[in-house]
Amino acid sequence: METRLKKLDEIGLETSAFKVLCLLSFNNRPLKPLEIAEWISEKPSTVRARLSELKEYDLVLSTPEGYLSRLNQYDMLMKLYRELKKELCS
């Protein structure tokens, strides 16, 4: 799990990868790339590329029904907290 959290910390908040991961982490069901693209207003090809990267980082899981996050809502909120804290302290 620590490796996943370190990989999460490498992802910028403004990136499409972070948007994908947030959507999957806060959703209660698997999502297909086209659904994700519609939700986050990105091209499906961009979403598929980000999903591939996130899968390599072991941050998402591919199932026949779609993609799931390997992180939970708490992990994502703590990521936001760490980023906010960093910004406020600099």
Give a short summary of the structure.
With 90 residues, this protein is mostly helical.
Describe the protein's architecture and organization.
The structure is a single chain. By secondary structure, this protein is mainly α. It has a single domain (2-89), classed as Winged helix-like DNA-binding domain superfamily/Winged helix DNA-binding domain (Arc Repressor Mutant, subunit A), CATH 1.10.10.10. The protein contains 5 helices and 2 strands; from the N terminus they run ααααββα. The protein has a two-stranded antiparallel ribbon with strand order 1-2. The chain is globular and about 40 Å long. The termini are far apart. 28% of the residues are buried.
Mean pLDDT: 95
The biggest beta sheet, please?
2 strands, antiparallel
Percent strand equals 5-15%
- How many domain modules? 1
Low-pLDDT segments, ≥5 res: none
Class in CATH? Answer: Mainly Alpha
The number of strands is 2
In DSSP terms (H or I, runs of 4 or more residues), the helix count works out at: 5
Reading the helices and strands in chain order gives HHHHEEH
- Per CATH, the architecture is Orthogonal Bundle
Give the radius of gyration.
13 Å
Structural class comes to mainly alpha
* Overall 3D form: globular
Provide the spatial order of strands within the biggest beta sheet.
1-2
Helix content: 55-70%
The named CATH superfamily: Winged helix-like DNA-binding domain superfamily/Winged helix DNA-binding domain
CATH T-level fold name: Arc Repressor Mutant, subunit A
Distance between the termini: 28 Å
